[in-house]
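Two proteins, back to back. First:
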Amino acid sequence: MPLRRKVRGAAAAGRRAAVRWWLLSLAATGATVTAAAALLAVALHVSSSAAASGPASSSGVPYRLSKLDGAADDAGEKRWWLPAPSRGFTPCVAPSPAYKSPGPSRGYLLVLTNGGLNQMRAGISDMVAVARMLKATLIIPELDKKSFWHDKSNFSDVFDEEYFIHSLANDVKVEKKLPKDLVKAPKFVRYFKSWSGIDYYHDEIYPLWEHRQVIRAAKSDSRLANNYLPPDIQKLRCRAFFQALRFAPPIEALGNLLVERMRSFGPYIALHLRYEKDMLAFSGCTHGLSQTESEELAMIRENTSYWKVKDIDPLDQRSHGYCPLTPKEVGMFLSALGYPSSTPVYIAAGEIYGGESHVVDLLSRFPIMMNKEKLASAEELRPFRQYASQMAALDYIVSVESDVFIPSYSGNMARAVGGHRRFLGHRKTIIPDRKALVRLFDKVDGGLLNEGERLSRRIIDIHRKRQGSPRKRKGPVSGTKGSDRFRSEEAFYENPLPDCLCQPESPASDASVVSI
């Protein structure tokens, strides 16, 4: 028997053994029938197509199903699995020789975070830097329990509290609670000014220590400028966000197990599919939804008091690229890039609005579509299921470790995961150009363009430089002023270059430079 056939047969046998192990382990742990049935279908599909598919591709994809006519060839397929060239950039977050351990504390900084998991992570990391600037002792931040998700998690439920404290010991003093004699003491409650620099904290906040021992930050998001802060402060933000904020051990353990299980299918895409009810209601995006669904979302938006914008034109939103891609559009996008239908896809998302009816087209194109509910048993997920932040943390881990990460929308998780993947070596992250894509997809829907080689080439050309390769953080959009100017900047944690990523042969920059 030729060596190639032996190798191919051994690989197929290994895949079948992995699937059998999957089914047995899922049955033993009480996984749902739906998950087992999905995996069994994959097993049958693999077995039946293995003989006909020919040699395994050099991309590492373990087997091949059908591919859209006219889509990228094998060489193109391999290209879309390769990581972005890092050009030698590696993390450089060590403090400068002049950096000193924290001295005597001036007081205590209480922090009330706000938003979802990744908005809170960014806010906490900023408050670590603010505590350093204010010479304050940081009390373990209080997580947001009043937002849309009503998550009652405490800091230690989501993050490794002990690790957080000890890893920042040379940067800021961190304590779990206020001293008893200060619990009922008068406090200054302040909404720190958004996107503030060191002068604001030095001139307006630091003098408050003369009158109170405790300052409470009523919000944590976007309270620190993205750019032009001292290099040691920027590096501290990176150490906090990318290193100190490690997830709690139970979350890390299950998250890593989910990664291992996804890898049993081969290289995989993590798709951050923003198609949850809250996201669609907030953004006013209704493309592909029924009239009843659109009205329900409008009612949610109207009844959510802290969402200020109520009247939204969905067509205008979509035409400007402000809407997430629909599941159907994501399927068209992946097919046009050249990913075969054998590609394992992990859905990093909450409950998809409308359920299976809105993902049927995506599933028909990519049947190996998994999520944490399919990969883990009900028993394994039970400790986390009622807590949105903890469930999101599982998705975060699987997304950071994926071979390719693709967000359908540029929200907080997309920015956080994308930045983390840059920090870890510019892992492949494809950012869809939504504005360009919806124009092409509308032409397909209108019969002016067919799926195939022409559409594929246009989409590939658009995304050649949108794969996460190194570049300096983008500055504000030209012509913007005031808060809009800061809001238009690329977020610090979305792209920590140049502050926290350096080329070994080049000295670290001594200033936070941006690319305009």
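And the second protein:
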Amino acid sequence: MISGAPASGKGTQCAYIVEKYGLLHISTGDLLRAEVAAGTENGLKAKKYMTKGQLVPDDIVIQMVKDRLEEADSQGKGWLLDGFPRSSSQADALKALGIKPDVFIVLDVPEEVLIERVVGRRLDPLTGKIYHLKYAPPESEDIASRLTQRIDDTEDKAKVRLQSYAMNVGALSSIYADVMQKVDGNRPKLLVFEEIDRVLTDLQDKYERGLTAGEEKIEVPSGVIYENKDNWRGIPTRLNSIPHSREIREYFYDDVCRATKNAVEDGIHKLKVQITIPELNPEMDVYRIGTLLELMRELAFSFARDGKRVKVCVQGSMGAGIFAGMPLQLAGTRRMLEVMDWGEYESKGTFINIGSIGANEVTDNDDMFILMAPQNAVGNCIIDDLQAMVIAAGDRPVIIVNPRLKDLPSAAGVMQIRGREKRMEFAGSFFVCYNFRLLYLSGTQYPILGALRMAYPSQYELYKRVDLDSGKERYALLGTFTEEPTTEEITAAFDGRDPKKLSNTGGLWKILFGSI
């Protein structure tokens, strides 16, 4: 697969790749036109939308791509998919069909260069040849006098297209991270191809030696079986090493985003994300608010890239007068959200807005709401405002991330009794679409004994951490559960017993716990 912004030179590089490697070049635009012209079943479906000037739905385009890739010439020559998929939902659909590239090439060109390339383009209406006023000027004054500029080749319209591209390629980068190759496209076209050629040549060499992309040999203890990288759904290692590496954080951001999007696409609109890796566990002294802010941003981006208007919300001060205040964990976070980097393409203020928690924050312009760590404070409760917001949102998704909605006693040690049962019922009514927590011995936060993970629509997965002879570690899958396992069931699995045949005996593992 190859991806590049408008005017990145992607078409030129596709021509070079096809010429040298003989791959079948597939562009969805060309494919749509060919299917319509041939009057195929897919073509007739697509024509209904194209004649009305509407976008052809993803399921029709994906079916066309799937059918084309299954034809004999695609299977025999290999294929080059040009500019598709464009969104994470399209990529996920291809992945579900078993369609994955050996390499995902992204042409990287600075925005100012792309705009200069677009604005300077001119078309000869007689020959159809494309010129550029600076880089490829016309050969004569006669030709120059008849050149025209496409209506879309203006700076304002170029910026809109670049904004859309940047959001989409960000989503694809996480999906194809293990096979992605960024190539500097701000060079002469032959130098760009030289780098692409090296990437493809190296890939050919690996196949000739019998290795596939992403494959590696792993030495593991006898009796423990691990899946290869392409099928791996395990746990990143060294989670007690703080700060977490960028790779670890991005793994969890991607894991959360995928599960949440799956749940939203299935029509679930009251969702909860619970993730307590050390940097996101407020009970640990290594808690980092920046990691939570990053997670909120990535989750918002994952929906904004699909054209959703997202409101990211953090609660304001609760109480009145000298008793006003807010949880220490959230102090100053509204300002942090306002000033943090939301990308170069003005996504903040268009696709993404910042708000508070409450019914008055819900407007007709919002498609969904993501709430950062809503929680009660001493003597104050956020649940009433949260419930009012959910009611005002109607069927629009409301996603709460790492909520802490248990009642807290007042300064006098008195619990909030009135209405408590209904508040707790509402707090428990959110559907858990993602849950990850580490398992330790009670009263400790080291060493990590295992982990519990659930990413919708998968079941709960229980892992045991295994030390390898090389000094490294892996997480071995002990079992799966349709519902969140109890402490007793986790204990039984770690003891090697069937969790379905529990007794009242305890043992060492009886005191396993994970921060909730």
